[in-house]
Amino acid sequence: MSLRSVRPLLRALTGALAAIALAGSILGPAEPARAGTSVSGSFPSWQIFSSGGAQVTASIDRDVRRGGSVAAQVANVGPRSGGSFGGLTQTIAAQPSTEYSFSAWVRTHQVADAQTARFVVNAAWSPSTWIAEGSAGWTELTWSYRTKADESSLVVALVTESTGRIWIDDLSVRREDSSTNLLRNPGFETAHETIRVLTPDLVLPREAPDVVVDSSAARVAWELTDTTGAAVKEGIVVTAAAPAAISLLGVPDGFYSLELSAGTTVRRLDVGIVGARGPAAVRWGTTMHVDLHGALDQTPLLTDLGIASARVSLRWENLETEPGVFSWDPNIDAAVAQLRARGIQPVFVLAYANRHYDGGRTPSSAEGIAAFARFAAAAAARYGADAAYEIYNEWNAETTTSACGRTPECYLELLGPARAALREAAPGATVVGPVLGGLTAHWLTTDESYDWLQRFFELGGLDLIDVVSIHNYGFPSAPEGHNEEVLERVRALVDRFSPDERVELWLTETGWATVGTAAGGVDEAQQASYLARDAILSAVAGVDRYFVYDLLDDWADPTNAAARFGLFRNPAEQKGTLAPKPAGVAFATATRQLEGFTVLRSERPVEGTRSILLSGPDGASKRALWATGAARTVLIATSTPITVTDQWGTDRIETPSGGVVELELTGAPVYVSGAGVTGVSAG
What we know:
Elements: H1 7-12, E1 47-51, E2 56-61, E3 71-76, E4 85-93, E5 99-111, E6 117-120, E7 128-130, E8 134-146, E9 153-160, E10 164-175, E11 195-197, E12 203-205, E13 210-215, E14 219-225, E15 231-238, E16 244-247, E17 254-262, E18 265-274, E19 281-288, H2 290-293, H3 299-305, E20 307-315, H4 316-319, E21 320-322, E22 325-326, H5 330-341, E23 345-351, H6 366-383, E24 388-391, H7 408-425, E25 430-436, H8 440-445, H9 448-458, E26 467-471, H10 483-497, E27 504-509, H11 524-540, E28 545-548, H12 582-594, E29 598-603, E30 609-615, E31 621-627, E32 632-638, E33 642-645, E34 651-654, E35 660-665, E36 670-673, E37 677-682
Parallel strand pairs: 12-18, 19-20, 19-28, 20-23, 23-24, 24-25, 25-26, 26-27, 27-28
Antiparallel strand pairs: 1-4, 2-3, 3-10, 4-9, 5-8, 5-10, 6-7, 6-9, 11-13, 13-16, 14-15, 14-17, 17-18, 21-22, 29-30, 30-31, 31-36, 32-35, 32-37, 33-34, 33-36
């Protein structure tokens, strides 16, 4: 049984034993306790615990020790409060009805109150061996305990409930008939320093690229390396008294690996450094899974990436818990507020079924369709007109279980009432449909999905929606010839049915899963280059908004393709830090480079290459270039130096020789700008 499970017992304890007087000299002034919560060290076989808001940590102390090379220092920086406590604990096997002897060496500094620090040996915390208040040098405490007839384990713990520091070392627990110490790691000689990264978002602004770290060690060494593994910058920060900032000022924009080391502990994190940008562009979007990541504020990442649209799922089955009763998710409410505070438009996905209607299947009956319409109206009333609402999600896919079927006719039966109810609740809200699902291979080898979309338009579907939305995944293939052709064909179909008014086309899901090629996905370098290329090609194809699926890796499962579409790593795998994958930085670079630019034309200067000519403000031009297969060389015709920006945002200046700049292209796109550029040709 854990100590946390018996927390109420602490408040119920009365008539506690008198404090054991400590011998030894009183300590003189010592280094003051660090403000806030310190970083804990790690002691194998021991667990650090805190409860009730206690600010209790355990750290490695190599300077103040009784024997060996280290002692454990337990610090409490919070005032005494009922139910607030923490410390170090270890559970060991024991024999019932048996006498055990205990000993521990203890040193204290400014323990604030009497009977607030103690050793306990069972889950009931009775009896307790108290540590006196104040400050004292190393003193040995000894006591004994006889297990009850039903006890088969001992919970050995140091517990502190008030401010002060306590060092412990050389503990022992022995059975009455044995000299064997039953505690594991009793002198804390096996100890690992810990490193905590306090900067929550590791896409850093070029102007102030600091990474704040804290550690149980006095110093943390660090080294920054680029994508080739070459060292860029290194140093040591002092963390003895407070967290310290690692300054990466002067490091060019790019994607880097940061290695932190303290003692035997090494922690590696990916870091992006990006330049300043204007307001995020509404043409870029992503999906946020609030249900998977709870109260985590993901919205700073959207600003990092230059994204101004975010899809948020409203799952009907989770929100209408009783017929007519809606239980809104406070995490979704908070996420919507955070999005709007940053000027980011929420795009709500209204789906799927509800157990109270149609037997839990996608609604098809009059009652079920009316209930779904009420759900759409309730969502619109809550979240307002300054949002877009996707009516259902991938009606043509297996998630649709309607008794009517997955046809356009069946979808329209749901769409019409939902759209009317939504618009009545929030006039001016953007209605998005049909949110059609598809895979590139499927769409290119048959006309089934195109026929579905065409039939939807023939039935008047465009009159019920403001935006046409589709999903398409081409992984593990490159976007050229896959996503690219799908988007061009869908754009042409939309335009054919709306010749007098341009209807916006949104690609609200696409992406590449980083599970490796052997598992049917791609590696991280491929994801980065494919997404950047695909974002550019989508603009060429006439897509008005492009949504990457998705923002974060959804689960800590490296073999699950569905879990590995994120631009950022799963927070649980990064100890809560939001660290970018290469694709995060590549996408941030693409949005910055394309911001304010429109497509003029697509070029193919050399077989196996692409060049996209872009027009920007004040007549400025730019080209995005890459190779679709093996590396290729092109010649940039220019009378003046050009700026070449790689996919990580790193700039370099190239000066022409004989009126040209020779440029090698790979699968990673580069962006070329310069007033004197007149064309691109074979090298």
